[in-house]
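Supplementary Methods, section 5.1.

A reviewer requested that the exact input to the structure prediction be made available. We therefore reproduce it here, unchanged from the version used in the analyses.
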Amino acid sequence: MDRLTLWERRTGPALLAIGVCFLASWALPVVVPALPPGADRVLWYVQVAAWALFALDYAVRLTLAPRRLRFVVRNVPALVVVLLPMLRPLWLLRALLLLQVVAARVRLPLRVRAVVYVSGTALFLALVGSVAVLDIERSHADGNIKTIGDALWWALTTMTTVGYGDRFPVTPEGRLVAAGLMTAGIALLGVVTAAIASWFVERFQASAAAERRSEAELKQALEELAGMRRELGELRQAVGELGRLREELAALTERLDGR
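The structure derived from this sequence is encoded token-by-token as follows.
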């Protein structure tokens, strides 16, 4: 095991915890605007510290990588997370890239990973998108998304492409978030549909394979039964011949006794 892989395995849980702290420190002031004095500044420092730790992790991984150019090409999201400035309109993009960076470091079995990624990504996008659009739209005079409940309802209808139209963003930043959620919602629905179709195909293939195995086993059993019937017929024929031989032997014995 090379040093880069060892570092990633050891720091994976810590990176996940840092990402959760970053998202919580970003979402808390938006969801709970009436925080105690100074809390916003503390949470901002938490975000900066999380960003610094991600930058440090990226620098260490880049140093440990045997092929650095290849590492940079394969880890573009991690680089973007480090290079993006801490600007409010880009927080959603940072959060989405953070999800990809953290997911790449979490080691799970393939089937579990697929379920966790699809369901976790959908939930993550709904929560992050609702918080982002609430942060953007709440202070706008013509905005109609004023509470976290409105934002969650809007995110749900947007991701499922229902679009009731009772809640909608009016700012350019909010519409950008909406475009991202709509695109992600369509993609996730496609993934879910493909996964369900794949599951049905797999089940049908398994059922067909089981039927083929059952037919083969039944055919083999019938062949064995036919063989046993032939052997039984031969055995009966041998028993009949033996009976005739016994009768002939008895007749011959009587003849010899008569003499």
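The mean pLDDT is 78. These observations are discussed further in the main text.
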